[in-house]
Amino acid sequence: MIAxxxxxxxxxxxxxxxxxxxxxxxxxxxxxxxxxxxxxxRVGAGGEPAFDCFCFPEDExxxxxxxxxxxxxxxxxxxxxxxEFTPLFHLYIAKRFRExxxxxxxxxxxxxxxxxxFARFPPELWPAVEEETECGSIFLKLxxxxxxxxxxxxxxDSYTEIERNRFVLSD
Length: 171
Ligand SMILES: [Zn+2]
Hints:
The structure is a single chain. It is built from six helices and five strands; from the N terminus they run αααβααβββαβ. The chain has 171 residues and is an alpha+beta fold. The chain has one domain (30-40, 51-169). It has a three-stranded antiparallel beta sheet, with helices on one face. Strands 1-5 form a two-stranded parallel ribbon. The protein is globular and about 45 Å long. Bound molecules: zinc ion. Residues 53, 55, 78, 80-81, 83 line the site of zinc ion. Zinc ion is lined by residues 53, 55, 78, 80-81, 83.
């Protein structure tokens, strides 16, 4: 009998196309839990199994680089407490500080904060890469290739009008 080299090639190809799921990471790892949650959120199933608490700690109010990240984070409620959280707004946040937010996760925050963070920003998708257009808009490109409009220059004026947060983004 002669082996068929084609079949092994085919296998390798189909494996490469598989998307990461909860089973692809060590059980109980941050990645595994985030992947599992991400799937449930996509399915939007009611009566899903109980999860760990992923509230942000009371003494560690979350910081975000863009308003859209606040909105994304606000959509995910802790399944145990259903609590909303109060974000910490910056009057001025430069690009280097936006990047620093992700490094600070490991050096300036607790395990619970990281749990809360990665429940909302799963490592399969975040951190995003910032893409600035010629007219000054900023898109966030996620790891799956999707792009979110995070900032438009015209928004600066409307935020100033509101005067509530003075959410000014600038380098
Ligand atoms: Zn909770």
